[in-house]
C-alpha cells in the first residue's frame, strides 16, 4: 500500500504572486536568516520519493516523472503554511495540533496554514489569512522574512512555507480557533537547531506487519503533561528551515522495518 496515492496537478494564475523579494535592515534580528532564505539556489520543489519507503515500485517511477515535469513547469502552490518565529532573544516557533473533527489531517501537529482561495493574491496573503482564521494573527502583526522550497503533501498538494517573525506580545495574544485548532504550542528554535530529531517508531497497521521509522522532535509541553511529536511534513519543513536558514542539516526519511 502506498502512503501517497494522489495525482499532483499544477496550478497557474497570472495574478498570483508566489514569492516576493524581501529586504530587511541589517539590525533586524533575523536579517541574516532572511538573506539566507533569499540566497537559496536549490530546487524550488523538494522530492517526495527520496529516502521514502512508503512509495513503492512503479508508482515511485511515476511520481519521479511527475516531479521532473513540475520542476520544468514551475507551478504555483496549492497551499501555504506560516513558519512564525518570535522576535526575541530566545525565539520560538509556532505549532498547532489540529482539531480532531476535521476532514483533513485531523488531530495532527502542523504549522498554521491552508489552501489558496480565489481571492488570494500572494503566498504571504494565503499564509496570513489562514493564520488569522486559525489563531487570530492579524495581517499587520508579522514581518515577512522569506520563503522555503515547496513540499509535496501526501494528498498531492504543493505547499509553500512562508517564514515570518512576530513580536512576543503578538505571540502571547494568539488564541486557537476551536473549529480548526485543538491547541497551539511553541518549539524553542535553539532547541531545534541544537537537538537532532530522534528516530521515532510508529505503528502503522495499514502497512502490514511493519514499523515506520522517521525523524521526530519531542516538544515538551507542560499544558498537557506529555511531549508533542513533530514529524512528517511539518517536521520536514522545520528541518529545511534549519538547513537553508542556519546551515544545520538533518537527514529526513521514511523507513519501513518488519516486525521481529
From TrEMBL:
InterPro entries in alphabetical order: CoAse, NUDIX_hydrolase-like_dom_sf, NUDIX_hydrolase_dom
Keywords: Hydrolase, Magnesium, Manganese, Metal-binding
GO molecular function: coenzyme A diphosphatase activity; metal ion binding
Source domain of life: Bacteria
Listed CDD domains: NUDIX_CoAse_Nudt7
Cofactor: Mg(2+); Mn(2+)
PROSITE patterns to which the protein is assigned, alphabetical: NUDIX
All copies of domain Nudix hydrolase, residue ranges: 76-210
Protein name stated in the entry: Putative nudix hydrolase YeaB
Record organism: Moraxella catarrhalis (Branhamella catarrhalis)
Lineage: Bacteria, Pseudomonadati, Pseudomonadota, Gammaproteobacteria, Moraxellales
